[in-house]
Amino acid sequence: MTDASEVWIVVGLGNPGPSYSGHRHNIGYLVNDELAKRMGGSFRTHKSGRADVVEGRLQVPGPRVVLVRPRSYMNEIGGPVKAVATFYKVPPERIIAIHDELDIAFGTLRIKQGGGDNGHNGLKSMRSSLGTGDFFRIRAGIGRPPGRQEVADFVLSNYSTTERKELPFQIDDAADAVETLISEGLERTQQKFNR
Question: In this structure, are residues 95 and 85 in contact, taking their beta carbons and an 8 Å threshold?
């Protein structure tokens, strides 16, 4: 069980601006929007000026949670995350990154702590800025690009019509996984969501 006096940071990985909002790479932003709704809060600029945040609790009683949407592009996301983590005095083991994952089928989730970057520039930037990769990851599957489509083009493209119908369920599941991870720990979350 978590200590209610602790603060957790939940980082939604993505790129800022309306032109990126529907992209597969922005699943982290979408999940954090859902979590903000559940907390009854709206994003506002953090004092660092490098991220938008929502502060609150996902469960009462429960620890304080800070949802973070970095205001930088994916490959520079680590700086804003480090700034917010330093401000709230949150160690990497209480940081959750929500991101897209090519090696997992669309609609599925995998939850883990630590591990490599698997070519993901957002994770690479976070690892570099935090000095460790030992944060939690909610990995939202987007699958591999069809045919010979380049990976970069695929992650920076919108979900297909079929995927858009399923997307709300994946967002909901990922938000539930964040709540479970904070309240019940990694093992229980993996049992429940790593299908």
Answer: yes
**Known binder of ligand: residue 121?**
yes
In a domain, residue 33? The reply is yes
pLDDT band, residue 4 (cuts 50/70/90): low
| Rounded Cα gap, residues 25 and 28, in angstroms | 8
Range of the domain at 133: 7-193
CATH number for the domain that contains residue 12: 3.40.50.1470
14 part of a folded domain: yes
20 annotated ligand binder: yes
Set 23, 25, 46, 99: catalytic member: 25
**Tokens encoding 40:** 């009854």
- pLDDT tens figures, 157-184: 999 999 999 999 999 999 999 999 999 9
Answer yes or no: are the C-beta atoms of 75 and 121 closer than 8 Å. Answer: yes
75 assigned ligand-binding residue: yes
99 is catalytic: no
| Alpha helix ranges (H) inside 109-160 | 121-130, 151-155
The whole-model pTM stands at 0.95
> CA angle 112-113-118, nearest 5°?
75
